[in-house]
Write a structure and sequence with these properties.
Layout lengths: L1 E3 L5 E4 L2 E2 L5 H11 L6 E2 H9 L7 H16 L1 H4 L2 E4 L2 E4 L7 H17 L3 H12 L13 H28 L3 H14 L4 H13 L3 H19 L5 H11 L7
Antiparallel strand pairs: 1-2, 2-3, 4-6, 5-6
Helix pairs in contact: 1-2, 1-3, 5-6, 5-7, 6-7, 7-9, 8-9, 9-10, 9-11, 10-11
């Protein structure tokens, strides 16, 4: 069994993909998957399905959605959706949901990075990031669910990417990370740590002038957008690049 929410909703059992075509049923399933092995109340499900426009018979309708969802998923999958007061719980084992697996690998990778175990951390984080297929809950029509979950998950993903890039720099993969950093900076131009990593990667590729130009670029952008200078770490790195500090190698 394999379920995915890090992208469009994905349900697979014994290598057979099980479609969930009904929009409201996708919302119910996705909301349960956002909190695996925990009871999700009827109020939470109602909020995710209808937002502020709740029908008068919402609870009865919701129970009908769950019934149809169970029928559509098949006996094995349906058995995982348990009724528990005051709502429902989906019971999953380790390694059956991409979100849970990502969180586990993310935590292990972060711990390895914090201990300076660069190869180990890079491996864990690479596996974690490979689980992403796009925007979480991409085809789930619930503004409440997206607003509550997607920004948090995107921030965790970005942190995982930064940690992995840090590990790759320690492992000497400077040329490899330059295009990746440039792409991330296009998406997150105000994330100063990414600019710092790009400066260091360019310098270690023998591109001192490009590294200094990268600093000037982020400096202009921060002054124009926020009226501030780059942080002290970026300023110190620029000075070290200017004097070709041998420790930067």
């Amino acid at each position: 069994m394999w379920l995915g929410v890090l992208g469009p909703l994905h349900v697979e059992h014994e290598n057979v993909v099980i479609p969930v075509p009904a929009a409201k049923q996708r919302v119910v399933l996705a909301t349960l998957l956002a909190q695996p092995n925990r009871v999700v109340s009827l109020d939470e499900l109602t909020d995710a399905v209808w937002g502020s426009d709740v029908p008068s018979a919402a609870r009865a309708t919701l129970r009908n959605y769950v019934k149809r969802l169970r029928c559509g998923l098949g006996q094995e999958m349906a058995a995982r959706i348990r009724t528990h007061n005051p709502g429902y719980r989906i019971e999953l084992s380790q390694g059956e949901l991409d979100l849970a697996l990502f969180n586990s690998l993310y935590e292990a990778g972060g711990a390895a990075i914090g201990s300076g175990l660069w190869q180990r951390g890079e491996s864990f984080l690479g596996r974690a990031l490979d689980l992403w297929r796009g925007t979480p809950f991409a085809d789930v029509p619930s503004e409440v669910l997206r607003r509550g979950e997607v920004p948090r998950l995107e921030q965790i993903r970005l942190q995982a990417q930064e940690w992995r890039l840090e590990a790759q720099l320690h492992l000497g993969r400077h040329e490899e990370v330059v295009p990746h950093l440039q792409g991330l900076i296009t998406q997150f131009p105000l994330r100063e740590r990414l600019h710092e990593y790009l400066m260091l990667a360019l310098y270690r590729c023998g591109r001192q002038a490009d590294a200094l130009a990268a600093y000037q670029g982020v400096r202009r952008m921060l002054i124009d957008e926020l009226g501030v200078e780059p942080g002290p770490e970026r300023q110190l790195l620029q000075q070290r690049i200017l004097v070709r500090d041998p420790q930067l190698g």
